[in-house]
Write a structure and sequence with these properties.
By secondary structure, the protein is α/β, with parallel strands linked by helices. It contains 22 helices and 23 strands. The strands form 6 sheets. A 7-stranded mixed β-sheet has the order 3-2-1-4-5-10-11, sandwiched between helices. It has a 4-stranded parallel β-sheet with strand order 7-8-6-9, sandwiched between helices. It is globular.
Length: 740
């Protein structure tokens, strides 16, 4: 496990080694500013540990810019243990405050003096666009501020020369996801979890009493939370600041609600962003909407305002991983910076970490608000980015059914089937496929119980209303089996002829599961040995380890032997002799035939005697159960909608070509490749697949493996972002973005 020998990695070497990046003699200050967001602590932890790892001094700057201005006990050197056991804590342990003083030059002068006294010339700022703008102003003024301090006799000429420039790297911590340039900001996914938990709870009571619920979510200037939660729960109506409803929306909304009730839907959900406006920029409030529904329709209607619940609670696995990746990348960016390097923001694009120019990103973010102020709402939606625009278009297609007379018929039948193990998000994908297919004029057929059911003729036409309320359901409503189609091919072909099925959407795969939740804490010194699912694929163990701050994660893709196990035990024993109380070791279920979970548990128990005790837990099928996360609901919805668009295009291309239309690119798999959603012909994927172990030959996430080791204090190599240079910020790309 100790990755000192890079050649031990069987999947290729890393392009850049951390040994080339020395932080010796450098000091980094880390602060959180503006509104707090879940995941900020994971970012702080990553900055501190990565900074110490490369030999730099790292300082906590408490209470944001206020602490920088006040100095003294507000700027304190951090050590490795300062950030132990904070990954799972919401908010920010170093505090955040709005600061008027920093907006004045006098305040920034005082802040510069406090930093110079400690030799801090590298700043890592975690906050929103206001916080990052302030940091950039500070960076530009830095040399002038130092000159002024020297003239006042507060610092000497040597210090002016020694600390002549300030490097700034930003990470966006904002639950609203309101910053242009990054797919997801730290805290957004956790806020969506809070919203969806509330919606799921409300749905049960609303159904019992046939109620209408108006839910107000945060987003004063950005409707991302409202839009994505509306997609995730199949809301009847959504109000966003970027896309106000058209004139006469009051009547349209009431018609839609009453139509849904007529279809035997027992509840209505309306989601409102707190900054919702009409086309004249006048506010639309939740109370207004309630009054309208009560007056026009007489429905029992309740308002729920979520408020600060959305900021609270434990950060999701996604936010912990995102913040950890960004924190490490931020330190690397600071160490590589020169006096000419402009301030940058570490961002996420698809599954890639990238660096973007801070000023350009802030400018684009402000352009969105300007477009809304000037009532250029189409521009506002486009400026938010392709992902936001696609979410909005997908929501409209899935929420509002056109009258049958207005949908041109394609005369094509499309089947939808679930295969493999059940996975959270499958039902959301089926719902999206059925509704997009119907909107495209196809007849949609549900195939029950996988390929076995297909062969037996368990096929039924499925309508728009049949999939209502499916997004939040766990498991697979259609039923799924792991049976492969091989022995049923003749029967399946016969059923396809009988039902005249022109295209088939298969949702499943080798194994699909993106759920892992495990936390370990206690007053005793204790090590938890956890076994995760995944077959031969170590994704869950690796990413779960990164999210939970594990000390080791054993996976099939990276062979290990008894010496590695011994090194891990010794490393953990030394660590537990300090103030650290907890250890976590993950093991993928098929990582080794002989080094079983029991073996590893017994080894750690024996070697840790007198220092720590051990507990083991085999997570098993709980990882496949439960309600799907917001990410899974939306990912399933968007992937499936995109797949149906592709099927429609292929069916149109095939018309007039006779009965048979089969070529390599008529059988494709849709997935994420780096930053984009791409369709890959199955014939192509064969070459890239390890069929014996049912995994890809190249796993993109393996390059994140050293990140877990570094944060657990192991020597490791690390591949920095795809581009060490600053990338250009694009308003719109040609390809489909992979963002959720």
């Amino acid at each position: 496990m100790d990755d000192q020998d890079v050649s031990a990695n069987p999947r290729g070497s890393f392009r850049q080694f951390l040994e080339h990046l020395s932080g010796a003699g450098k000091a980094i200050g880390v602060l959180t500013s503006g509104g707090d967001a879940q995941g900020m602590n994971a970012a702080v932890r990553a900055v501190v540990r990565m900074g110490i790892y490369v030999g730099a001094k790292v300082y906590f700057i408490y209470e944001g810019y206020q602490g920088m201005v006040d100095g003294g006990s507000n700027i304190v050197e951090a050590d490795w243990e300062s950030v132990s056991s904070i990954l799972q804590v919401g908010g920010t342990i170093i505090g955040s405050a709005r600061c008027k003083a920093f907006r004045s030059r006098e305040g920034r002068l005082q802040a510069a003096r406090n930093l110079v006294q400690l030799g801090i010339t590298n700043l890592c700022v975690i906050g929103g666009d206001g916080s990052l703008t302030g940091a950039n102003i500070f960076r530009k003024e830095w040399s002038g501020l130092l000159e002024e301090l020297a003239q006042n006799g507060q610092i000497n000429k040597e210090e002016v020369e020694k600390y002549s420039y300030l490097n700034v790297v930003g990470m966006v911590g904002s639950i609203d996801n309101d910053f242009c340039g990054t797919d997801m900001t730290i805290g957004t996914d956790s806020a969506l979890h809070r919203i969806i938990e509330v919606i799921d709870a409300i749905m049960t009571t609303a159904q019992s009493h046939q109620r209408t619920f108006v839910l107000e979510v945060m987003g004063r200037h950005c409707g991302y939370l409202a839009l994505v939660s509306a997609l995730a729960c199949g809301a009847d109506w959504v109000f966003l600041p970027e896309s106000p409803p058209e004139e006469g929306w009051q009547e349209n909304m009431c018609v839609k609600l009453s139509e849904n009730r007529a279809r035997k839907k027992r509840l209505n959900i309306i989601i409102v962003a707190e900054g919702a406006i009409d086309t004249q920029n006048k506010p639309i409030t939740s109370e207004q909407i309630k009054e309208l529904v009560v007056t026009q329709l007489g429905y029992d209607t309740r308002v729920t305002i979520l408020g600060h619940v959305q900021r609270g609670g434990t950060p999701s696995a996604f936010d912990r991983i995102l913040a950890s990746r960004m924190g490490v990348e931020a330190v690397v960016a600071l160490l590589q910076a020169t006096p000419e390097t402009p301030a940058c923001v570490v961002s996420l694009s698809g599954n890639q970490a990238v660096r973007l120019p801070l000023v350009k990103c802030v400018q684009m973010t402000q352009d969105v608000q300007k477009a809304m102020d000037e009532r250029r709402f189409k521009d506002a939606v486009q400026l938010r980015g392709r992902s936001f625009e696609n979410n909005l278009n997908t929501y409209k297609r899935l929420a509002i059914k056109m009258p049958d007379t207005q949908i041109p018929k394609s005369n094509c039948n499309v089947g939808v089937i679930n295969v493999g193990a059940p996975a959270a998000g499958m039902n959301a994908a089926v719902r999206a496929a059925v509704r997009v297919g119907i909107a495209d004029g196809h007849k949609m057929f549900a195939v029950y119980d996988g390929f076995e059911g297909f062969a037996k003729g368990q096929i039924k036409e499925i309508g728009w209303g049949d999939v209502g309320g499916w997004t939040g359901q766990g498991g697979s409503i259609l039923g799924t089996k792991r049976t492969l189609p091989g022995k049923y091919l003749t029967e399946i072909a016969g059923q396809m002829r009988t039902h005249s099925i022109n295209a088939l959407l298969i949702i499943g795969g080798f194994e699909t599961c993106d759920r892992i939740k495990q936390s370990a804490s206690g007053t005793k010194r204790r090590v938890f040995i956890i076994e995760t699912m995944g077959g031969y694929c170590g994704y869950l163990a690796n990413m779960g380890g990164l999210a939970a701050g594990a000390d080791a994660a054993y996976i099939f893709e990276e062979p290990f032997d008894i010496r590695d196990l011994q090194a891990n035990v010794e490393h953990l024993t030394e660590k537990m002799k300090t103030t650290i109380q907890r250890g976590l070791v993950l093991r993928n279920e098929s990582c080794s035939e002989n080094y079983t979970t029991d073996f590893i548990y017994q080894l750690y128990s024996e070697e840790g005697k007198g220092v720590f005790d051990c507990r083991k837990n085999v997570l098993g099928h709980m990882q496949q159960g439960g309600a799907p996360s917001p990410f899974d609901r939306n990912f399933g919805t968007k992937m499936s909608a995109r797949a149906m668009q592709w099927i429609t295009t292929k069916l149109k291309e095939s018309q007039g070509k006779g009965r048979r239309f089969v070529s390599d690119d008529s059988i494709c798999v849709l997935g994420i490749s780096k930053r984009n959603l791409v369709f890959r012909p199955v014939a192509e994927l064969k070459k890239e697949t390890d069929f014996e172990h049912r995994i890809p030959k190249e796993q993109w996430w393996l390059k994140l493996r050293p990140l877990m080791k570094i944060l657990a204090k192991y020597k490791a190599s690390f591949e920095v972002s795809d581009s060490e240079e600053l990338e250009h910020v694009h308003h719109r790309g040609h390809e489909e973005p992979a963002a959720i």
